[in-house]
């Protein structure tokens, strides 16, 4: 399986990192070695002194598809949950300044903790899907699927024009404002529609 991540999908977060708002989805990949199962601790890697959390809605692809039309995209996912796109911000800033790829900052081992996947049929979301992240019990990020610049259906349509999506692939849909640094001893908890979905202890 592979992990596809969308960048700059919330206007306020693009603003806090002083990035332009893209007219097409910006995407990058993480390998399967980036996955960190729910409840496992995250160890700060020694190549960075500025690891940031980014809580994101994550959709699980349920069947193979290529060149998927936006109007059919909803047939290609049936579950969603939350994930954290851990980012070595110092490494990313360096890579960006040199025009280099982001993988050293984004694709490293255990950089993608994921929580519990819930059937989309079981989610009632009249006003979009709400999610949030707390650090040591204090809310640091709040998001809603309706704030996304590119919807999951548009993302699936766009990305599948380049890359075949396969059953089990995960799509991280971008982070809202409020990203920040983690330190040893921090406890992250992510909530989906008010329910605890994902827990990570930083070591
Ligand atoms: Zn992200």
Please explain how this structure is put together:
There is one protein chain. The protein has 4 helices and 15 strands. The protein is α+β, with helices and mostly antiparallel strands. β10 and β11 (138-144) form a beta hairpin. Residues 5, 7, 54, 56, 85, 172, 174-175 line the site of zinc ion.
Furnish the topology, listing elements before pairings.
Blueprint (H helix, E strand, L loop, with lengths): L2 E5 L3 H6 L9 E5 L4 E2 L14 E3 L1 E7 L15 E8 L2 E2 H10 L4 H4 L5 E2 L4 E2 L10 E6 L2 E7 L7 H8 L10 E3 L7 E2 L5 E6 L2 E7 L2
Parallel strand pairs: 1-12, 3-8
Antiparallel strand pairs: 1-2, 4-7, 4-13, 5-6, 5-12, 6-9, 10-11, 10-14, 14-15
The structure holds zinc ion.
- The fold-level CATH name is Fumarylacetoacetate hydrolase, domain 2
The rounded Rg comes to 16 Å
* Tally of distinct domains: 1
Q: Could you tell me how far the N terminus lies from the C terminus, measured between alpha carbons in angstroms? A: 27 Å
Q: Which structural class should the secondary elements be placed in?
A: alpha+beta
Small molecules bound in the structure, each named once: zinc ion
CATH class: Alpha Beta
CATH architecture: Alpha-Beta Complex
pLDDT < 50 stretches: none
Per DSSP, the total helix count is: 4
Nearest-integer average pLDDT: 95
User: What sequence of helices (H) and strands (E) makes up the elements?
Assistant: EHEEEEEEHHEEEEHEEEE
